[in-house]
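The methods section describes the discrete structure representation at length, but only in general terms. What matters is that the chain and its backbone geometry are given together, residue for residue. For illustration, here is how one protein appears when written out as sequence plus structure tokens:
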Amino acid sequence: MKLVTAIIKPFKLDDARDALAEIGIQGLTATEVKGFGRQKGHTELYRGAEYIVDFLPKVKIEIAVNDDMVDQVIDAITSSTNTGKIGDGKIFISTLEQAVRIRTGESGSDAL
């Protein structure tokens, strides 16, 4: 099992969810986060005063999947969230040692 974590632009969340649903992903967790990478934030003007926004709003998606689904999930996220501009985000893959469904007690791949 793998945990796929993607950091994307907020307005691309619905596109990512739809693309993941098309390949059979039934659940995901989305969290509003802030951060920066190569973008390094930007400068904004508010009431005549200029200030630097270091942390940009992003959405973190987390999806637990079986090993055989990882490439499909990466393709779905990449194709649905790519704008071709800096700040599109990143995808991280981690090994998931165990998963347990609280309601039934199922564990491993059965819990996904």
